[in-house]
Specification:
single chain, mainly alpha, about 80% helix
Length: about 240
């Protein structure tokens, strides 16, 4: 089967739905990381708190609390990386059994399609999960770098390297959190892409739901309102 014949297995609506999925994933990621100054995202506000945290760490004795927080963040990235790897393994196993999946789809009146159609739909989910896995792994490693930098901060706040190294640790922590958040967004849209098994319109609906959940949590959630109130109190 040629590539033209393979491409003909999908309708224009399928291609449009996939374009909407990819566009929504890329746009919401850009919007969260580059928000308007008048409407900052939760992720951007938390970056400020991370920098404040490292600044306060310099004078905190002992620093057991800071070490515990970094350890908790590493555990979170490890958990998501592990579960994503399991999901990828399940998707790859399903790729070798698409005939049975096609039979189940026919029994459920979802529709009949060649095995290659189901393979491509599974592959889209696997690719999004693979992207998420790589982000989680990199976030885990960066949190490790952050822990090392925190350990290198001199105990004496008057030391000339104390605050510069704390600043470096803060920026590594911010970068790690950004990678972790990107992994979460890829996971959200991987779940949304599962709706493609029900058809292109279901994929569009799943994309809209994933997009709406992400937008609300970053720009219209109660947690954001609390952070904004704390910021206002600090500024006043």
């Amino acid at each position: 089967m040629t590539w033209i014949e393979r491409a003909a297995l999908f309708s224009p609506l399928d291609y449009s739905a996939m374009a909407i999925l990819l566009g929504a994933w890329l746009w919401i990621g850009w919007k969260i990381e580059h928000p308007s100054p008048r409407k900052r995202s939760v992720a951007l506000m938390m970056d400020g708190y991370r920098r404040d945290w490292m600044h306060e760490m310099v004078t905190r004795q002992p620093r057991m609390f800071d070490a515990q927080v970094v350890a908790a963040m590493r555990q979170g990235s490890t958990f998501f990386a592990s579960t994503t790897m399991i999901a990828i393994g399940g998707g790859l196993a399903l790729l070798g059994n698409t005939e049975r999946l096609a039979g189940v789809a026919t029994d459920l009146a979802i529709g009949s399609a060649p095995a290659m159609v189901w393979e491509i739909k599974i592959l889209v989910v696997v690719l999004l999960l693979a992207n998420a896995f790589l982000k989680y792994v990199w976030a885990h490693r960066l949190f490790g770098y952050c822990a090392v930098l925190m350990a290198s901060v001199p105990n004496d706040p008057e030391h000339p390297q104390a605050y510069p190294r704390a600043g470096q640790a803060a920026e590594i922590c911010v970068t790690a959190a950004r990678s972790f958040n990107r992994g979460l967004r890829a996971t959200y849209f991987a779940l949304a892409s599962l709706a493609w098994f029900l058809g292109p319109m279901a994929l569009v609906l799943g994309t809209v739901i994933a997009f709406g959940v992400l937008y609300r949590r970053e720009f219209a959630s109660q947690s954001r309102a609390i952070l904004m109130a704390q910021t206002s109190n600090t500024e006043t």
